[in-house]
Amino acid sequence: xxxxxxxxxxxxxxxxxxxxxxxxxxxxxxxxxxxxxxxxxxxxxxxxxxxxxxxxxxxxxxxxxxxxxxxxxxxxxxxxxxxxxxxxxxxxxxxxxxxxxxxxxxxxxxxxxxxxxxxxxxxxxxxxxxxxxxxxxxxxxxxxxxxxxxxxxxxxxxxxxxx
Length: 163
Prior knowledge:
Layout lengths: L3 H12 L6 H5 L16 E12 L9 H6 L10 E5 L2 E5 L3 E8 L5 E5 L4 E5 L3 E7 L5 E6 L10 E7 L4
Parallel strand pairs: 1-4, 3-9
Antiparallel strand pairs: 1-2, 4-7, 5-6, 8-9
């Protein structure tokens, strides 16, 4: 277990998205800040890519998919796509803009059911969606295209604002 000062330094650096010098992890003594500066809500730009994971076009590459996509198969009428990354975070009060890239030919949505916010992306396009002054909580986002549901989803974790 890390000594309290190193643990505090590590937590502070990771929360701020800072890279730690190797010495901080190797045991060198570094002074941890005694008081953290007051934080203000930030504007966060997050990138999401819509990635094919198990789709019809891959059947030649992965022969087992032929059986999965066949009538009555495990993926009959479905394709598996994913949001990359599937887990994102922000702090309460932040304004979050998602920059979304659809590299496939399929239409997708980025939908936050709980927030009643959604955007549609046609094949090979990009788009964006902004959430203003998000409140702390866990918000599921998903693609509501019937062929991609229930496989394509992720979560936005909104942490309480730092002191």
